[in-house]
TrEMBL record:
This is UPF0225 protein GCM10023081_04700. HAMAP family: UPF0225. Belongs to the UPF0225 family. InterPro entries: NTF2-like_dom_sf (IPR032710), SEC_C_motif (IPR004027), YchJ-like (IPR023006), YchJ-like_M (IPR048469). It comes from Arthrobacter ginkgonis. Residues 34-128 form the YchJ-like middle NTF2-like domain.
């Protein structure tokens, strides 16, 4: 994904100015400061195929050993439906979303209520309910 492309999270920013900066900088400590920003960046990581970023932002207590992304799934749109907590001053947050995709020519929507925790100043994806 080119840094000048529109960001997959549909923030209106370019990928490089939005989620791409987290994907490129997480190893150097560039992390989202809110749960919703982490949610958006994780959605964009699915769209961009950045499995390493997804694993790095997954809480160690629930993180899988490996993550294989389905390259046939094309992520089309992210709708944030509800946000509870998750500010830079909170320790926990919940983001409910609908992620629209295409797979084998069929449209689909994944709806989830994701839980996030902040530890040592970094937000992590903990788990979610479909």
């Amino acid at each position: 994904m080119d840094s000048e492309d529109r960001c997959p999270c549909l923030s209106g920013e370019t990928y490089g100015a939005c989620c791409g900066r987290f994907h490129a900088g997480y190893a150097a400590g560039v992390w989202p400061t809110t749960a919703v920003a982490l949610m958006r960046s994780r959605y964009s990581a699915f769209a961009a195929g950045a499995a390493d970023y997804l694993l790095a932002t997954w809480h160690p207590s629930t993180r899988p050993v490996e993550l294989v992304l389905d390259t046939e799934t094309v992520w089309r749109r992210l709708d944030i439906l509800r946000i509870k907590g998750g500010s830079p001053f909170d320790e926990r947050g919940t983001v409910e979303f609908a992620a629209h995709y295409r797979h084998d020519g069929e449209r689909g929507v994944q709806r989830e209520s994701s839980r996030f925790v902040r530890e040592d100043g970094r937000w992590y994806y903990l788990d979610g309910e479909l």
